[in-house]
Amino acid sequence: MAPNSGAFLSFMSQFIIQVNGSVYGSFASVSAFHFCQAALAQGHRIHKVFFYQDGVFNANQLTCPASDEPNLHQQWLTLATDHNIALVNCVSAALRRGIVSAQDTTENGLQSVNCAPQFTMGGLGELITGIEKADRLISF
Amino acid sequence: MNLHHIQTSAYTDNALSLCLRYYGVDDAILLAGDAINCLLDVNWQTQLQGKTLYLLESDMLSRGLKTKLENSLNSSHITVIDYAGFVSLSLQFSKVITW
Question: SUPFAM superfamilies, alphabetically (chain B) (predicted)?
Answer without folding.
Answer: DsrEFH-like (SSF75169)
